[in-house]
Amino acid sequence: MTRLTDAEAARLCVVLVRARNPANIGAAARAMHDFGFSSLRVVNEFPVPLEAARSAVDASAVIAGATSYSTVAEAVADCTLVVGTTAVGERELRHELLELPAAAQRLRAGVAGGGRVALLFGSEKTGLSNEELSFCHLLLTIPMYEHEDMRHPSMNLGQAVAVCLWELVRDRAHDQAPAPVVISGLDAPPADSASLERVTALLTEVMEATEYTRRHAANCDPAHIRRLVRRIGVDPVDAPVWMGILRQILWKLGVERK
Amino acid sequence: MTRLTDAEAARLCVVLVRARNPANIGAAARAMHDFGFSSLRVVNEFPVPLEAARSAVDASAVIAGATSYSTVAEAVADCTLVVGTTAVGERELRHELLELPAAAQRLRAGVAGGGRVALLFGSEKTGLSNEELSFCHLLLTIPMYEHEDMRHPSMNLGQAVAVCLWELVRDRAHDQAPAPVVISGLDAPPADSASLERVTALLTEVMEATEYTRRHAANCDPAHIRRLVRRIGVDPVDAPVWMGILRQILWKLGVERK
Fold this sequence. Notes:
Two copies of one chain form a homodimer. With 258 residues, the first copy, chain A, is α/β, with parallel strands linked by helices. In chain A, 44% of the residues lie in helices and 12% in strands. Chain A has helices at 6-10, 22-35, 48-54, 61-64, 72-75, 100-112, 130-133, 157-173, 193-209, 212-215, 222-231, 238-252, and strands spanning 12-17, 39-43, 67-69, 81-85, 96-99, 117-121, 138-141. In chain A, α2 (22-35) runs parallel beside α8.
């Protein structure tokens, strides 16, 4: 059974994307502190909400150590598993969608494997955009009660963070045996997000240089290409091989590299 | 394992004792709504906080139906099981103290038995007093991380309610027959061997046409290329996309297809 160790908990990053309310950032940080997590990353075009959360009277050590990013790409660059949270289950990008208990097992397996994993929460109003979701390997949803004649409920951001983190640590309190999980079916850890971005960029160049983009425009939305690369479980050993193949194609086509 | 039915959920009362912050009352109500609970009882000497929570813009049906009491005794009068929450584990009253997962089982057993049960949360600052605890049959604590050299952490009221209610319903989600949707990605069946062979053949053509094979001969043994393609977990939906990309490369290179 997987119990989360301190070292494993340290490899889980909570990433708040476009959180607007400093109180929610503070609440997320407090839940992290309560359950033994420390790595908070905040993605915002402007650093104002994080600064406001830092100046709150009950700001925690987690907030003090939080790092600020301007894009999701930078925030997850060193992560080998990126999990996005969603209330409704985005289907457009054909992500695997898991309910919280199953997703928590995958997150635990991710940190147990030695990689850094990211758990993304979108803005209070709109959640994660399709572009932001395209950085994710899978999606997590907290199953909620389906009220008749009502919109699907969504959770308060601070509460959603607390519930997810509780699910991650509850086995530490309460002995249970989650089934062993293999993330990619490979022995090697998956490539980190920065490597996948480099593969994505090269593939995009190839698709443009070969006019694939012109002929199959529907497959060429940047978010779709990113997902296509995420779905193939490129490992760190193979990533340079794929890069080499793609570079060679561009060289042969006589493309001046950007 | 007991699954919570709607009728059982209706018999669980969340009792907020001396909650001072209307936003916290609202957050508790929102979590109740999210997880399918409806019976909220608020104990306050003065009804001001509940009234303020009622007037909040996003006030829920739960808040609208909340009842106000001036004492814990009245609020739990019709309950056959009363469970108090505590951060530190009050022992003075020699209560049975259970961690959340075990306490949740008792709460589920309580409503399953046909009785009305109460789950008490104390004020944000002081928790439940000894006098208030004296109405409880047992105490529940959410196990939290023990930080060295720090006071025992306490949870935000709205987050504590959300975590407890999630624990009460998580088996309903978790036990349910197959998770809602598996769209693609890691759980999709992998492409069959014939598809993978077609991808392999095309990739081999591309590697030859671009002279990759000449420059990186070590990567180009047929078995190596086959393994490279196997290691990427191409699913049946993506396989034709990859074939299209590879065909387009060959077309652009002016390669006469075999």
